């Protein structure tokens, strides 16, 4: 379940930030530690990071992210070894840069992209086309052509209209497109309505119930420009429930059997999407480990496969959040602090230099996060606090309710863990905010992955402001 369903207001003692040794919940990336009071990640102190790169700042623990990618690869290989093997596509929508694409390739993962920007980033990082998939429910001709020209591992087709478009473009480009059909399994799961994707009344996929998926398979098989590679299901995101995944796997396996029976074709690959949960606060349930998800998927695939008597398919998955989220923290600098009286007691509002422009998740999904004082040792005394951003909305909340160190003042650094997925990737320029930098830390060194936006960047798209000289 999404942590948004946690009782509110949350008892302060349960909501205290866990310490970076993981002793109270393991929310911090593996190399996060406290040295002489200061938080360090990848052997680099947060004060150095803040003074070198400024704040707000996304700090990715490279070793941690690579380990999570490896954990998924090993888990899938182990669980599917008795079947026909498995492939892991990292879902770039969680966070993508050329550096991250390179790490994922080096760890033996493929890349799942869903836009021109993501596809171009993967290609710019040197990832080979046959290691990239392309998603999207409304792909442009430009996206499809680029996919065709780079011989992508697959294009995941979302509708009959799109299938016709891919066929036309494949014919024009004189290529054969590798097609994966995304089907709506009818399994309703996911942390929040906006991130549930497999019930009937939503925009994604080819409906099974109406026979659309079978019709699409028939059309792919009838075209010399299309090659039916696989069937795909993605039921939603932040899903803790193994049953939802196994149910969806079963539905796709049954469709594969029906295609074999009715169309005489054995689909070689089944892609079971992403959606594996992470823990954002100590109140959240501990999600299954990759090996537990992988074993559950393998047993569903195996039992449905046995019934059909067909050779086992190759299985793909597309984890994003579970690789990216826990590897990253966001560093903010504290600005204005004010005490706001409540019916009982008061709440300390701590405003930081970012907010909903670098993490929209609290505003969009009522997602909860936690926080700690990062540049020095937190005091034992705590104050009921809310961390807010600097945007012109009262919903601009970073951490809703937290018992935070009493010894806090302007200029202090705060660290919010588990911000690596759908933070930087959903960042906006709201209130003309410049989007933060993203740095990687590893082995005592830091490296810029994405530079901070400047006011010049912001003005550069405003054609009427051309030539304006900043007088700073
Ligand atoms: N595959 C497909 C087809 C997807 O649509 C997604 C996510 C994934 C894989 C990766 O899912 P993950 O393993 O990261 O859960 N902005 C929302 C999440 C939206 C997810 C969209 N699709 C959030 O911040 O919670």
Write the layout of secondary structure elements.
Elements lengths: L11 H4 L17 E3 L2 E4 L2 E2 H8 L3 E5 H19 L5 E6 L6 H9 L3 E4 L2 H9 L7 E3 L6 H9 L4 E4 L2 H14 L3 E8 L21 E2 L4 H11 L3 E7 L9 H22 L5 E3 L18 H19 L5 E4 L3 H4 L3 E14 L4 E7 L8 H5 L6 E2 L8 E7 L8 E9 L7 E5 L19 E6 L2 E6 L4 H6 L12
Parallel strand pairs: 4-20, 5-6, 5-13, 6-7, 7-8, 8-9, 9-10, 9-11, 11-12, 12-13, 15-17
Antiparallel strand pairs: 1-2, 2-3, 4-14, 14-15, 14-19, 16-19, 17-18, 20-21
Helix pairs in contact: 3-10, 6-7, 8-9, 9-10
The structure holds ligand LLP.
Low-confidence segments, ≥5 residues, pLDDT <50?
1-15
What small molecules does this complex bind?
A: ligand LLP
Helix content: 25-40%
CATH topology of the largest domain: TIM Barrel
Determine the mean pLDDT: 92
Short description:
29% of the residues lie in helices and 24% in strands. The chain has 472 residues and is of the alpha/beta class.
Textual characterization of the structure:
The protein has 472 residues and is α/β, with parallel strands linked by helices. The protein has two domains: 186 residues, Lyase, Ornithine Decarboxylase, Chain A, domain 1; 238 residues, TIM Barrel (Alpha-Beta Barrel), CATH 3.20.20. It is 29% helix and 24% strand. It contains 13 helices and 21 strands. The strands form three sheets. Strands 4, 14, 15, 16, 17, 18, 19, 20 and 21 form a nine-stranded mixed beta sheet that branches. An eight-stranded parallel β-barrel has the order 5-6-7-8-9-11-12-13, surrounded by seven helices. The N terminus is likely disordered. Ligand LLP binds next to helix 11 and helix 12.
